[in-house]
Fold each of these.
Amino acid sequence: MKTMKALGQTKFGGTEVLHEATLPVPEAQGSDLLVRVKAVGINPADSMVRQNVADFGKLQNSELVLTGWDCAGVVEDVGPQADGRFRKGDEVFFAGNIARRGCNSEYTVVDSRIVGRKPASLSFIEAAALPLTALTVWEGMVEGCGIPLGPQPGTPKRALIIGGAGGVGSIGIQILSRVCGLKVVATASRPESVEFCRKMGAHVVIDHSKDLKAQLTANGIDAVDYVLNTINPDINFDTLTALIAPMGKICSLHPITKPVDLASLYVRRISVVYELMFTRPMLNVQPEMQGAILDHVSALVDAGTLRTTLVTQKPWTVAGLAEAHQHSQSGKAIGKIVLGPVG
Amino acid sequence: MKTMKALGQTKFGGTEVLHEATLPVPEAQGSDLLVRVKAVGINPADSMVRQNVADFGKLQNSELVLTGWDCAGVVEDVGPQADGRFRKGDEVFFAGNIARRGCNSEYTVVDSRIVGRKPASLSFIEAAALPLTALTVWEGMVEGCGIPLGPQPGTPKRALIIGGAGGVGSIGIQILSRVCGLKVVATASRPESVEFCRKMGAHVVIDHSKDLKAQLTANGIDAVDYVLNTINPDINFDTLTALIAPMGKICSLHPITKPVDLASLYVRRISVVYELMFTRPMLNVQPEMQGAILDHVSALVDAGTLRTTLVTQKPWTVAGLAEAHQHSQSGKAIGKIVLGPVG
């Protein structure tokens, strides 16, 4: 039996639970691809699963758990019912399925329907920064909020991204400004995060630690049509609803658990849209849409419309993974952290 | 000064407050049309305004208030900035603006941008049944929920309409089944309302006084993709969320005022969409979309795709208006009530 190196955990806790492990190389069954992992992107979901505080169901504290739901690699084998788009040797990227093992291992298996072609113009490290966050923005804003792909006639609609310099924020700025043609306001509070938001394409950057309404007004913006809220909505939901124009939409990436005033949204016809990138693969609802979105994102990268959000690279070691988790959890990370090369 | 007859009220209360009045014929200024009213549709908003319990702001108890926000009539004069679509003599229909007087008078003025051409194949009485409810369904479901116009490839998505035999429900069944190509489940509890839902095009009719989930299951439907909820969501919101498929949407025509469990909607990515037909004219947000929707609805009627939802006609008198309000408030009304001929 062929084996492989993995970075995993058998109990939940701080980064000290992470360790090296040896696993059998999995087989591509059903609609799966077997992928040789080249680089692994880090997301907040990794630390949430490591600590077992994820919103999407508790894991068992005994099995070997691998985190890492963002991958770029090479197709090694194709399952008998796999999507006909892929052949051995194809370079791919994908965000995976949180109901299965993450991809912190030399090989991984993934449902071919949620896999996209890696942008040819990016390295594996650069490509692994994109899938999870790009899917989140595309599903939440283009699909969930119904924002059309631009350019649009007339005055551009306005989007506010809370947490502009983070992983979702940094590809969100790009997609909403360059693909959807919106006027994008991003929030950031440190000089380096403000600069990063501007580099990603934000038209206006405001400080989320100060009065948002006053800062929008100072920039000639009376209200925004869309909000992409990357932080806990229990903190800021009512603040956001005061900024929204009639028929506006708020996309939340996290559940709203505290009571909120929904009645006040009625006369302005404001909608609340949830986005969780793992919904489709986890519940097996139109998973093929994720493959299609990633292929589209890949084409936009190769056309020069979108760029990687990679900022920090760490070695694919236990120490590198631990540092990446800590950096991700610090709340100070700018853009994306990717581990690699794998192996 | 030319005067006209009107049916109005100068205090709030039961139908006994309604009385006949004489008013000057208004002038078509700005972007308005002056319309000779031929028929007036009755909606729940009329009784709410009569009693001053509308969600959209309290009125003053002294001025002459006219209700009636559904009208079919003939253009008598065109304001200097009016939409170029209209000429004197054109037959039109529209739902109006609740921030202005309703149209229970021989003449009324209306912003030309929210006016549509009356279906040529309908009488004024038949046409006045449609604007407010058709706009509500179109804005709430096609725009708000993002339901594409059909036919769609693959298995049809499923919509549940709570209150299928009412004014909104009866045009909702038609639009969602015949224009959007959805499988439509409507609720109704009396033999005559069940029959009316079927006549409007409902594929399945279930009883809202019994277990909805069990009845859906008995009809081979495991979940629905959209809900059009025409009743108070404080009564049934949590019941509805249990019926919704992942990525489903609930359209509410009334504000949600009680605390609801929004966290449980997260993993399934369920959105809450509000619809209030008066938002656009009241807040002057893209009012021209209402003219465009009504023109589209008119064409669909003349093509035989949609039909009037008129069921009850009353004379345009104080007594007729009072009876219409009482019938509308009874909760037993099927389809629409229209008053006319006016004058």
Amino acid sequence: MSCNSHLLLNGIEFEEVTIDFCKRENLSPEYQKINPMQLVPAIEVDGEFKLFESHAILRFLACAFPGVADHWYPADLFERAQIDSVLDWHHSNLRHGTTGLVFNSTVGPLLAGLPPNLEAAAEARKVLLASLPMVESFWLKGDGHFLLGRSQPSIADLILVCEIMQLEVLDEKVRKQILDPYKKIGKWIDDTRNATQPYFDEFHAVLFRAKEKLIKIRSTGSSDETKIK
Amino acid sequence: MSCNSHLLLNGIEFEEVTIDFCKRENLSPEYQKINPMQLVPAIEVDGEFKLFESHAILRFLACAFPGVADHWYPADLFERAQIDSVLDWHHSNLRHGTTGLVFNSTVGPLLAGLPPNLEAAAEARKVLLASLPMVESFWLKGDGHFLLGRSQPSIADLILVCEIMQLEVLDEKVRKQILDPYKKIGKWIDDTRNATQPYFDEFHAVLFRAKEKLIKIRSTGSSDETKIK
């Protein structure tokens, strides 16, 4: 979602190709030529250059296409390095925690037919709960609306906000318990959403459809999501 | 180690400050002003600019200091994006696997006095065992000596080789069992070592001293390292 938003926000022409994990399209030989790691997102430029890993894609798009505003990934090396620092920190912290919790507690068991992995979900929840205070008190320091106290969003805001948005698919009580203590994070999500409309809502529509589907699934059976501590 | 090697290889003047984890120096208020995440490495430039996360540091050093050869982090945006892709992939794969296995099976219980976490070590081992074939067959594709089939090393070679070198502290039988199937990886480690001497051996001396210490510790007691499957 962060990649699509970035492309639209900056007027970069592209053709969107949806990869359906439920139909295992990510495992197809055709897609593996683009990303042998079998994950999304990935891009193909001019039918030749292939690139995967969302951070690498956003860095590349910001630098390779004329007209992308400087605030997304500044040319100033000191500012750029700080944005890289957020992005690199994100992998083993906020990303590991969010993805691990969402997949092992919810998406795996309720949408993909996998057995719940409560131990992995609990470990990921710990990482997430240790990461959120660092976002709230360190990365959102200062009076700016965005990460690093900046007045305009960078690719790091797109990446980290889209990550936290994944928590929407959790049981609502669990999600509120996790996120409610963090007022600055709540405001920052709103600020990033406002700065990237209408694309933010457009790309998160998929997520909210999954959320609705999960509410129905939960209403007809039991789920282990609230047991994870 | 990758950061120090890069600084020395490229003639960038610096003062090295060792942070002793056994003495909990990483938790000191003074160090937290440089890296609030309490981890190494971190740099301070001209007493003002502070930066942490090894990938972000190496990108910054390659761009900010004159005289760093282009092959370390090429100015060409397509080449640079591919190096970024390796680095971003590394976080949740090779790095997660190596660090998790080494810490939970060996460094934690045998050096830091923590209880072994065999479940976390086993999960990390799985990630490592899934990552190594991707390095061998995908990232080391082609005839070049280095990642992405390149003829000269990049910052990604420094980072990934230094990561794999951490496996030296494992029980030797376990280490050989993990690494021996990967002949291209073995040659690539040698090539990277040769391309970065004498700094490679100089900075890994600390690791080999830890390895010797662990051999003595294992000879006087039991260890759970070989139980992790």
